[in-house]
């Protein structure tokens, strides 16, 4: 364990923090409004270029334009116009990927299946489930990048500068869940958002959040590709997992695996913190030189 040198926090009065909690809800409202306003575009393009291609264009417009609007607002208010995507420690990647997978199948899926789903909602999910190339571009690439830029890169990053980490992570995860506009995806987005938010808080790198999001979406894409959507929707959770004993074993195994991943990530984060601490501590001759030059 390393001791950080005590330094006075310098606050820049001219640079504003964006967003706060109210502004974060406003950003979420802009995103939801975008998804509603561009729905007619999706319906028109469905007949012209097909459902999957139209879904890609619709998504890029519905999420991309709100992101650009919010990005410009942030740039104007804070003066910051970039996002940190540097991966300093590649050993973190397998832990966040495995952690996401066990979260999804061992914790999120059993919880989400406890929520009753009306027939019309099942039909809506079935009708919007695609497994082609354009669907992969949306779920595996566009969604992880654009949504993480908004909810971790802008919202969480701003909240962390003004509020406690736990509060910031929970609020950003709540908003990430709300933007999906249904309770089943809310569960997944909220829990994955907490995990992603914690990793972002400890690394300050958006790349890990994108990897977590992409892993979650890609798992869902593979399930739709190899398993019938109807069987996933119609079969109860016990049948999907092969019975109650298998479900319990899956949950227990997932909890232990997730705990190991979180423990390992914590160790990696501590290594980075200590390395940063050592870099900030100047050699003795430089300390004397600094004192001499300031006399």
Model description:
By secondary structure, this protein is mostly helical. The chain has one domain (86-293). The protein contains 13 helices and no strands. It has helices at 21-37, 39-49, 51-78, 92-112, 119-127, 133-160, 165-178, 183-203, 206-226, 229-234, 237-240, 244-280, 284-293. Helix 6 (133-160) runs antiparallel to helix 9 (206-226). The model is unreliable at 7-13 and 279-295 (pLDDT under 50).
As residue ranges, the low-confidence spans are 7-13, 279-295
Name the quaternary structure.
single chain
Order of helices and strands: HHHHHHHHHHHHH
Largest sheet: none
Query: What portion of residues is helical?
Result: over 70%
- The percentage of residues in β strands lies in under 5%
Put simply, the count of helices is: 13
Q: Give Rg in angstroms.
A: 22 Å
Number of domains: 1
Mean of the pLDDT scores? 86
Q: Give the termini distance in whole angstroms.
A: 34 Å
Content-based structural category:
mainly alpha
Count of strand segments: 0
Shape: globular
Transmembrane segments: 21-44, 56-73, 93-112, 132-151, 163-179, 185-201, 208-227, 247-265
Protein name: CAAX prenyl protease 2/Lysostaphin resistance protein A-like domain-containing protein
GO molecular function: endopeptidase activity
Domain CAAX prenyl protease 2/Lysostaphin resistance protein A-like: 133-218
């Amino acid at each position: 364990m390393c001791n950080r040198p005590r330094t006075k926090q310098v606050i820049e009065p001219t640079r504003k923090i964006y967003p706060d909690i109210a502004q974060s809800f406003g950003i979420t409202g802009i995103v939801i409004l975008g998804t509603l306003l561009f729905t007619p575009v999706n319906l028109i393009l469905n007949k012209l270029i097909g459902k999957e291609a139209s879904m890609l264009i619709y998504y890029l417009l519905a999420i991309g334009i709100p992101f650009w609007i919010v990005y410009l607002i942030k740039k104007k208010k804070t003066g910051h116009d970039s996002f940190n995507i540097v991966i300093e420690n590649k050993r973190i990647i397998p832990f966040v990927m495995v952690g996401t997978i066990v979260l999804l199948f061992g914790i999120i899926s059993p919880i989400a299946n406890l929520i009753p789903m009306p027939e019309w909602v099942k039909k809506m999910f079935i009708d919007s489930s695609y497994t082609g190339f354009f669907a992969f571009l949306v779920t595996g690439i566009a969604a992880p990048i654009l949504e993480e830029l908004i909810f971790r890169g802008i919202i969480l990053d701003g909240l962390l500068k003004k509020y406690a980490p736990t509060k910031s992570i929970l609020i950003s995860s709540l908003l990430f869940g709300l933007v999906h506009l249904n309770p089943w995806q809310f569960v997944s987005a909220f829990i994955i958002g907490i995990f992603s938010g914690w990793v972002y808080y400890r690394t300050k790198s958006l790349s890990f959040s994108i990897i977590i999001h992409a892993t979650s979406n890609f798992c869902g894409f593979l399930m739709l590709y190899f398993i019938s959507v109807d069987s996933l929707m119609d079969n109860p959770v016990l049948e999907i997992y092969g019975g109650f004993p298998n479900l319990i074993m899956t949950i227990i195994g997932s909890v232990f695996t997730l705990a190991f991943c979180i423990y390992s990530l914590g160790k990696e984060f501590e290594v980075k913190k200590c390395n940063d601490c050592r870099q900030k501590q100047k050699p003795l001759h430089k300390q004397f030189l600094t004192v001499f030059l300031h006399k």
